[in-house]
Specification:
Blueprint lengths: L3 E5 L4 H13 L4 E6 L19 E5 L5 H9 L4 E4 L6 H6 L2 H20 L4 E7 L23 H20 L3 E6 L2 E2 L8 H10 L4 E4 L5 E3 L1 E2 H14 L5 E4 L4 E3 H11 L7 E4 L14 H6 L8 H14 L1 H9 L4 H7 L4
Parallel strand pairs: 1-2, 1-4, 2-3, 4-5, 5-6, 6-11, 7-10, 8-13
Antiparallel strand pairs: 9-12
Bound molecules: nicotinamide-adenine-dinucleotide (NAD) and thymidine-5'-diphosphate.
């Protein structure tokens, strides 16, 4: 496998963890990170990568066909597409950007990748495209897509487009569908970083509905290793589910965080449920384990304790996000405000 990789959305949570993984595990690869720095993109996530000779950051939109064509035409061998609008609650408030970036952006990337005959295209998708499970069972790659939120519908549409490009053009695309991630650099709007940072600031944590919705948690580093395995060993046209067998109710997560941070029940506040709230996700990752020779390595209890410690040790990182001050990194680099 050649080694010039375009990583889109690399200033976000999972993308920046992926960049860090590649810089340490594949030091000879050339990485180009394309990100248009939405509210979720943060140059501080890549602070230690800037200046490394094999890493280049390009501020730009995946929907910008000319820019994408130019970048991919410049010797790119593979594309890993993380760029997305990723938060369900925001998609419920309005989904125009979700349709634009998640669907149209994927099309623009694939057209350029096809034109320049890239060797592989990895579409980073989500288990949410499968919809909601009952009490039993887990999503396999054969589970029909049944998205319930505007976010998951936009991701499912992109997945269908990826499938169609493979079937129609023989385009060498691989789709990964992972469960909920936790770990360093997650934007504090998602459950775990929101609750940790609220508790550190002595604020209550808002549990939606009865708190019994189940998510299947995986450490972001295990997810990133699976994406790398898919890039290197995955078969074109295939879908790989990624998960780590850690089904937890939101209340279980909340109680664990209260315990790790030495807080009591009084910090927990039940609030109105999310509209269309999926009840349960669970992933069967047998195919990825068998075909990609990948295994999750991070124990859930240890991973959660380390993650909480990371947010304790990086208070300026999340405080700057909460105050909006993090936009200064953009100003420092580009001499103007967003
Ligand atoms: P994130 O919101 O933290 O980061 C998204 C990044 O994409 C940001 O840096 C943002 O600036 C960038 N971006 C958005 N629109 C763009 C555009 N038009 N052009 C260029 N860049 C753009 O998201 P994340 O949690 O890191 O998720 C990354 C991918 O993984 C997404 O595709 C998401 O659907 C998928 N995923 C996430 C999870 C999870 O638990 N977070 C689980 C499974 C799959
Ligand atoms: P989230 O982190 O938004 O991920 P997703 O919706 O993609 O699974 O939410 C995880 C779970 O936590 C989900 O069931 C909704 C719930 N939740 C809360 O109870 N309170 C909150 O403030 C947030 C953000 C999420």
């Amino acid at each position: 496998m050649s080694n010039n990789i375009l990583i889109t959305g690399g200033a976000g949570f999972i993308g920046s963890n992926f960049v860090h993984l590649l810089l340490s595990e594949r030091p000879n690869w050339r990485l180009v990170c394309l990100d248009n720095l939405t509210y979720a993109g943060n140059l501080a996530n890549l602070a230690d990568c800037q200046g490394q000779k094999q890493f280049q950051f390009v501020m730009g939109d995946i929907c910008d066909a000319d820019l994408v064509d130019k970048l991919i035409g410049d010797n790119v061998d593979a594309v890993v597409n993380f760029a997305a609008e990723s938060h369900v609650d925001r998609s419920i408030l309005g989904c125009q950007e979700f349709i634009r970036t998640n669907i149209e952006g994927t099309q623009v990337l694939m057209d350029a990748a096809r034109k320049h005959e890239v060797e592989k295209f990895v579409q980073v998708s989500t288990d949410e495209v499968y919809g909601s499970l009952g009490e039993e069972g887990a999503f396999t790659e054969q589970t029909p897509l049944a998205p319930n939120s505007p976010y998951s519908a936009s991701k499912a549409a992109a997945d269908m487009l990826v499938r169609a490009y493979y079937k129609t053009y023989g385009f060498a695309a691989i789709t990964t569908r992972c469960s909920n991630n936790y770990g360093p650099y997650q934007f504090p709007e998602k459950l775990i970083p929101l609750f940790v940072t609220n508790l550190l600031a002595d604020k209550k944590v808002p549990v939606y509905g009865d708190g019994l919705n189940v998510r299947d948690w995986i450490h972001v580093e295990d997810h990133c290793r699976a994406i790398l395995a898919a890039l290197e060993k995955g078969r074109a046209g295939e879908v790989y589910n990624i998960g780590s067998d850690n089904e937890k109710t939101n209340l279980e997560i909340t109680h664990l965080l209260l315990k790790l941070l030495g807080k009591d029940e009084s910090m927990l506040e039940y609030v109105e449920d999310r509209m269309g709230h999926d009840r349960r996700y669970a992933i069967d990752a047998a195919k990825a384990k068998n075909e990609l020779e990948w295994q999750p390595q991070i124990d859930f209890a240890k991973g959660m304790a380390q993650t909480v410690q990371w947010y304790i040790d990086h208070q300026p990182w999340w405080q700057e996000i909460k105050t909006g001050e993090y936009l200064k990194y953009y100003k420092q680099q580009y001499g103007k405000t967003l």
